[in-house]
């Protein structure tokens, strides 16, 4: 299978023909890399939550032991793997899944996140109670380690300026209509950047706090995050998010300010953050063909909206 400039191989696991499928227009979409144990725990929780009949698509981002990932996905009836031959990151991996699954809706999850139950999800597979179909419906994200919520429990349902890629339902035609994620972001700010482009096109992100997505983050000895890469990409993409979507003279300093705030807050991997900042400025100048600048008034309106959302 081919997506953009990367080639992928797809393996389908068999599924019994008589299995019921109540989630006909939904696919569960999960990117993963080198974390089969974490993925296995998530699939068990998804089945317990009531999603065992939903279509499952996993993007294996060039794992070093692809057979281990394939064996995990093979436990899911009809589970499908798309294996990337070269690592591209979760932004590009999610795009591959969105384009390949053939469904109208995708439940986007990280390999360590899952809904506590299916209650409240199904109504969003037909536009919910909103007259206008949201491009994305995002949910409350809860850390299982300490119970921390992504948003205060008092925040009501309504339009929002952000979503969690580890716990949202995508209306796939709407999201792909604006180009999906930017592949070259790899990861880091790929979600707020897509949120901005959706909003600038007049599309809605809806927040439903009734649905809780559990974040079961843990790191086995061989499944740890590379924090040097993490800090590099976040410092870089913080700049690109604004410089590519706003008037350049305003967007570049706006992005630099965001990157500086992030670096000050993290206080680690100084050299990685410096390299990320320099790369963000350089790519802002080089990626002219990727720029989708909006008028200044619209950029300022976006800033006001996300501050108040």
What features would you describe in this structure?
It contains nine helices and eleven strands. The protein has 309 residues and is an alpha/beta fold. It has two domains: 2-215, Spore Coat Polysaccharide Biosynthesis Protein SpsA, Chain A (Alpha-Beta Complex), CATH 3.90.550.10; 227-308, no CATH class. Strands 1, 2, 3, 4, 5, 6, 7, 8, 9, 10 and 11 form an eleven-stranded mixed β-sheet that branches. Helix 1 links the parallel strand 3 (26-32) and strand 4.
The proportion of residues in beta strands is 15-25%
Order of helices and strands: EEEHEHEHEEEEEHHEHHHH
What is the CATH homologous superfamily assignment of the largest domain?
Spore Coat Polysaccharide Biosynthesis Protein SpsA, Chain A
> Would you tell me the overall average pLDDT?
89
Annotated CATH architecture of the largest domain = Alpha-Beta Complex
Number of helices: 9
CATH class of the largest domain: Alpha Beta
Topology of helices and strands:
Layout: E1 2-3, E2 6-12, E3 26-32, H1 36-49, E4 55-60, H2 66-73, E5 80-84, H3 90-100, E6 105-109, E7 113-115, E8 136-143, E9 158-160, E10 167-171, H4 172-177, H5 190-200, E11 205-215, H6 227-243, H7 248-266, H8 270-286, H9 296-308
Parallel strand pairs: 3-4, 3-6, 4-5, 8-11
Antiparallel strand pairs: 1-2, 2-5, 6-10, 7-11, 8-10, 9-11
Helix pairs in contact: 1-2, 6-7, 6-8, 7-8
Provide a short characterization of the protein structure.
The chain is an alpha/beta fold and 309 residues long.
């Amino acid at each position: 299978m081919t997506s953009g400039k990367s080639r992928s191989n797809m393996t389908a696991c068999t599924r019994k023909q008589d299995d019921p499928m109540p989630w006909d227009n939904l696919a569960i979409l999960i990117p993963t890399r080198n974390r089969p144990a974490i993925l296995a725990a998530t699939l068990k929780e998804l089945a317990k939550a009531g999603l065992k009949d939903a279509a499952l698509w996993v993007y294996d981002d060039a794992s070093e032991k692809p057979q281990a990932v394939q064996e995990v996905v093979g436990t899911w009836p009809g589970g499908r793997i798309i294996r990337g031959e070269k690592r591209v990151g979760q932004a590009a991996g999610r795009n591959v899944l969105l384009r390949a699954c053939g469904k109208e809706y995708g439940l986007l999850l990280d390999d360590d996140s899952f809904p506590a139950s299916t209650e409240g999800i199904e109504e969003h597979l037909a536009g919910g109670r909103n007259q206008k179909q949201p491009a994305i419906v995002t949910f409350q994200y809860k850390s299982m380690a300490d119970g921390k919520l992504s948003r205060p429990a008092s925040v009501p349902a309504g339009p929002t300026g952000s979503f969690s890629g580890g716990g949202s339902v995508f209306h796939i035609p709407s999201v792909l209509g604006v180009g999906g994620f930017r592949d070259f972001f790899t990861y880091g700010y790929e979600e707020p950047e897509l949120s901005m482009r959706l909003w600038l096109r007049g599309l809605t992100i809806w927040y439903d706090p009734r649905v809780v997505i559990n974040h079961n983050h843990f790191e086995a000895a061989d499944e740890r995050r590379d924090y040097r890469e993490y800090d590099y990409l976040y410092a870089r993409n913080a700049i690109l998010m604004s410089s590519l979507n706003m008037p350049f003279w305003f967007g570049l300093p706006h992005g630099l300010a965001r990157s500086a705030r992030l670096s000050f807050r993290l206080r680690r991997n100084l050299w990685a953050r410096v390299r990320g900042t320099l790369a963000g400025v350089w790519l802002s100048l080089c990626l002219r063909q990727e720029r989708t600048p909006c008028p200044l008034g619209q950029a300022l309106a976006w800033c006001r909206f996300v501050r108040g959302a």
